[in-house]
User: Fold this.
Amino acid sequence: MQRWITRDITPRRTTAHRAAKLLGVPASWLWPELDNSRESASQAEIVTLYPHRAESPDHLWLDLLAGAEKRVWLYANASLFLPEDNPDSIEIILRKAKDGIEIRIPMADPDSPECALRGLEEQLFDAIPARVRMALSYYSPRVGMPGVQFRLQRSTLYNSIFVYDDEMLVNQHVYGMYGYMAPLLHLRRMEGGTLFDMYIKSFERVWDISSAVEDSNFWRQRTSAIMSATQAIDQRP
Assistant:
């Protein structure tokens, strides 16, 4: 830090933003020259790229989730791998919600033609809607809890987007390939960059056209199944 001041050296963009965050000021206040290149700012937002999502470390997902202080947004068809690979993730999400952190989870409507088409494209057929229903079964008991927002959407899934404050993981889907085989992009928002905010806008557009889980056919079927099971138990001798 001393040489930044005494020798008028501009640090690397990522380092500059970390220092500015500690001081509570925009990095451009300290080093105005950082504003000169929007392209370099967007490139600096790229932390790393995993050729396949399956190659990303399990601890990365938990570390980002545990470190979130403002928002946790999870957009995918099912996100089934999250609770399966990291069983603590759902409880962490609930604790985050209780602490006032914004939780948004849009998922595919398993009864939508878009979800069925996804199964056809990946040659998994009915397995895709079934995976969505299984994931919804994990999350359903949390529907209606304060701070946790669930919605179902019927749009085409171009990318799965997972946001943890100013960090983001983007599963970039490839036609005909399973999600775990597709690339995973790790982004960190930088002042002056445009890549991170582009995916945020995409998430928000999907969120705006999504509907409440409670209004879906899945929810009606779930409610009916619970009532039938409860009645069967009550009628036991």
About this structure: The CA atoms of residues 137 and 222 lie 9 Å apart. Strands lie at 46-50, 71-75, 102-108, 148-153, 159-164, 167-172, 184-188, 211-212.
